[in-house]
Design brief:
Number of domains: 1
Strand order of the largest sheet: 1-4
Oligomer: single chain
Shape: globular
Helix content: 55-70%
Order of helices and strands: HHEEEEHHHHH
Distance between the termini: 38 Å
Length: about 170
């Protein structure tokens, strides 16, 4: 047992250090990361507006659906309740609007819920064998729904202005 004592102390110290990670930092990284996934997917469905901060691609113009977007919904996705002509523009819009809202931390819980619904539709109807990926997405989105955007967000700014006693999580 004496041999395990240093390992136990090290683990206890590590656990204590992890517990001090600021929740707002975790929320910001979660918001940015999940927003990037959906934004990049949405970018494959439109032309005229291309913004990729990581790759440094910036093309500004009026966005419109690509010719292949409706084909993708008709030939690969096979959603049972929406026609491809309706589903493609709805998905493209959702994959741009909700990630932007998440990035700024505005209507975070609502945006995360919308993207969680989208994730569930993708998992159930489109790629049912991609549960490992979709499970990670769901975990991040559920965290944001439960905990909110954190201090570094417009949600926190508006909450503090409407009720100065309200303090967002660290």
């Amino acid at each position: 047992m004496k041999l395990l004592a240093p390992i136990q102390r090290a683990l206890t110290a590590f656990n204590a250090a992890c517990a001090k990670l600021p929740e707002s930092l975790i929320a910001f990284i979660a918001r940015f990361s999940i927003a990037a996934i959906f934004w990049k997917s949405g970018q494959t469905k439109i032309e005229g507006l291309q913004i990729d901060l990581i790759d440094g691609v910036f093309q500004f113009g009026w966005p419109h659906l690509t010719d292949s977007a409706v084909d993708l919904f008709r030939d690969e996705y096979h959603l049972p309740f929406l026609s491809p002509a309706v589903a493609a523009p709805l998905a493209a819009a959702a994959e741009h609007v909700f990630p932007l809202l998440l990035l700024f931390g505005l209507a975070t819980r609502l945006s995360a819920a919308a993207l969680l619904f989208m994730t569930l539709v993708i998992e159930v109807f489109v790629y049912p064998t991609a549960y490992a990926t979709h499970g990670v997405w769901a975990g991040v989105l559920l965290y944001l729904m439960a905990r909110g955007a954190g201090k570094f967000s417009l949600d926190a700014l508006f909450a503090s202005r409407s009720d100065p006693r309200q303090s967002p999580r660290s």
